[in-house]
Amino acid sequence: MEGVTQRARRAVVVEDDRDIRELITHTLSDLGLEVTAVDSGPAGVAAVRAINPDLVTLDLGLPGIDGIEVCRQIREESDAYIIMVTARSDEIDRLLGLETGADDFMSKPFSLRELQARVNAMFRRPRPGITAEGDAAELLTYGVLRVDVSSRRVYRDGEELLLTRTEFDLLTELMRSPARVVTREELLKAVWGTPWIGDTHVVEVHVGNLRRKLGGSRFIRTVRGVGYRMEEHVPQA
After folding, report:
1. Where are the domains of the chain?
2. 201: CB partners within 8 A, 6+ apart
């Protein structure tokens, strides 16, 4: 639209290791993001509140408040994409990060090219409220669930649900083909952009988070060894 200038995307880097903090900052700046870098958990939460970023990279082991708690606090008030970064390889840390709202997870040492690829894939997803002029709104319904794709809003029994961007994209992908089983690999490619993640736990954790927000497992069925589909027997509105 003429006369409207879209603001540059913003990122907050929360990392206490100075060298890694500078590397991530330069990498994101090369992608055109305006980057604010901080070195502690409390400073990260404050920066997100002040800047309202599109992306946060978050170290797990931080002074002041650890990365899990920082992620939880950020997620309470921001829908920014969150990539959690850690030198620890414990599976429990990874799962806790995803369960508290992180969209993705990277272990140190990591490739800066891979970081760029993941960020680019995230930003290729549709943004809330941005549609081409004249486009018809896309509405998806399934029983008492209603998804307004253009405004990225989800309703259950008329009540709006607050989903993360990743949870919204997973639900939309499943609802577009409700009778078909969607494999975990297909969801990785559709939602995360490329199937770079070595396992599918990231999908399983986010589907678990989504189910809790939908009110249990009555909407999404696990097809063992394959993937997921919308549950066949859903109460009608």
Report:
1. 10-123, 139-230
2. 91, 94, 95, 98
Please say if the pLDDT value at position 122 is more than 90. no
**Where does residue 41 rank: exposed (0-12), middle (13-18), buried (19+ CB within 10 A)?**
buried
Q: What is the pLDDT of residue 158?
A: 87
How would you label 188-210 residue by residue, b for 16+ Cβ within 10 Å and e otherwise? bebbbbeeebeebebbbbbbebb
Class of domain 139-230: mainly alpha
d(CA 81, CA 11): 9
Sign of CA dihedral 87, 93, 94, 96: negative
The first and second tokens of residue 203, run together, are 């999908």
Question: Of 30-39, 45-54, 103-112, 118-127, which range is least confident?
Answer: 118-127
Cα dist. 77→39, 71, 154, 184 in Å?
21, 10, 17, 29
Q: Architecture of 10-123 per CATH? A: 3-Layer(aba) Sandwich (3.40)
Span 1-30, mean pLDDT?
A: 85
Instruction: Give the residue carrying structure tokens 């870098």.
Output: 37
SS3 assignment for 105-126 = EEECCCCHHHHHHHHHHHHCCC
Q: Per-residue pLDDT averaged across 127-155, rounded?
A: 73
